[in-house]
Design brief:
It contains four helices and no strands. By secondary structure, the protein is mostly helical.
Length: 231
């Protein structure tokens, strides 16, 4: 997806021209503020494009997961129908089929959780994209008003331009804070998953050690019993 364009080059040229050749010193501040607003607009435009691209990628991942879910659901329903037919006909039921159905149900739940997580992240990024898109719009209008202020030598246009620029900065701040909050939550979830994996690994290791210890004890007992019989 292409980033929103910020066509402000011509306006900035007019503003700088008026600042260089104008007699009023405050127009120099108009040119400076216009350059600052153009910088903010470029950053907001880049972030708007980035968040929209990421949202689309996550939505595609969610679609892939739902397709995978449908494939598993189809297999599950076919196997369940066969299982129910055998039960209706009074034929012996295979326990492995029950286990397979339980595995399908577990896998489908896991896939559904992943798909919904991708959808939630995509919606969140789209809401962030909207904030940055609003910011770009306000910056564009602010730069245009600054150019009008320089050409018409009208300070009220410049003041209104600064007001709109402040609104654009506010939207950029909201979008950036939401993006940082999401990244923080993602890192926290990854840390919790790693902690749980470490715990499960320690538990499995402890159970293996206890099993080995029990096997050693039983081997010692059997050896001692064999020695007593020999005596």
């Amino acid at each position: 997806m292409e980033q929103p364009e910020v066509p402000t080059e011509g306006l900035m040229e007019h503003t700088h021209h008026e600042a260089e050749h104008g007699s009023q010193k405050w127009i120099m501040w108009v040119a400076l503020s216009t350059a600052i607003l153009a910088g903010f607009a470029a950053v907001a435009s880049m972030m708007a494009g980035h968040t929209e691209n990421e949202a689309m990628i996550l939505q595609m991942k969610a679609s892939d997961q739902w397709s995978y879910y449908q494939a598993k659901s189809l297999k599950y329903n076919m196997l369940k129908a066969r299982f129910e037919d055998r039960a209706t006909d009074g034929k012996p039921l295979d326990s492995t089929v029950k286990d397979k159905l339980a595995d399908y149900e577990k896998e489908m739940k896991e896939i559904e959780v992943k798909a919904r997580a991708f959808e939630g992240d995509s919606e969140h990024l789209l809401s962030v994209h909207v904030k940055f898109a609003y910011a770009v719009t306000f910056f564009q209008v602010a730069i245009a008003l600054a150019a009008i202020a320089a050409l018409s030598k009208s300070k009220p246009f410049w003041f209104f331009s600064m007001l709109l620029g402040a609104v654009g900065i506010a939207f950029s701040g909201i979008g950036g804070s939401k993006l940082l909050h999401e990244e923080h939550e993602a890192k926290q979830e990854q840390h919790e998953e790693k902690h749980e994996e470490k715990k499960s690994g320690e538990k499995s290791g402890a159970s293996e050690k206890s099993g080995e210890h029990g096997a050693e004890k039983s081997a010692e007992k059997s050896a001692a019993g064999h020695a007593e019989k020999t005596e």
